[in-house]
Amino acid sequence: MDKARKFIWFPTPYHSLLLWLVWQILHDFSRGHMVLGALFAIVIPWIVAPLTEKEPIAKNPIKVLWYTLRLLFDIVLSNYDVAKRVFQSNRSLKPAFIAVPLAISEPLPLTILTSSVSLTPGTVSVELSDDRQWLYVHVLHLEDEQQLIHLIKQRYEAPLKEIFGC
């Protein structure tokens, strides 16, 4: 039996299991709800499966771990920096919008990149251009635009290119 036919009833088995478990948690564990939850766990993923896009898979889990740790470290440092600036005069702030040229165009890596920029305090991903060539970012305090663009590309975009091979 080929792989495509093997999972015809469960195109996304983990989602089916999760859907069934959530249904059971939200309702009592009666036989009727177990059967109804199982029916939903089969039918909903089966209907939705043709609508989903195939996402790239992380090629190297160790790099994912390093990326996550680097992001957490940057979040902590940025929190400190923003807190320090909050206690200073607003006149010392230099807010700005910048345009970061992008070298990746896959939806999942772009989502992770824009989320990483927004999760780091002091920067917010504002918009992604329609052609996916530019990421517009609002910065709370901008000293050097080219340095910040270089930082985003080296600390976030380059590792994502390696992780997803795009």
Q: What features would you describe in this structure?
A:
The protein is mainly alpha-helical and 166 residues long. The chain is 57% helix and 11% strand. It has 6 helices and 3 strands, in the order ααααβαββα. It has a 3-stranded antiparallel beta sheet with strand order 1-3-2. Strand 2 and strand 3 form a beta hairpin. The relative contact order is 0.13.
Main β sheet profile: 3 strands, antiparallel
Portion of residues in beta strands equals 5-15%
Gross CATH architecture of the largest domain: 2-Layer Sandwich
And the CATH topology of the largest domain? Answer: Alpha-Beta Plaits
Write the element-wise H/E pattern from the N-terminal end onward. Answer: HHHHEHEEH
Record the strand order, biggest sheet.
1-3-2
Cα(first) to Cα(last) distance is 33 Å
Number of strands: 3
Per DSSP, the total helix count is: 6
Structural class by helix and strand composition:
mainly alpha
Kindly give the count of domains.
2
* Morphology: elongated
CATH top level of the largest domain is Alpha Beta
Summed over residues and divided by their number, the pLDDT gives a mean of 88
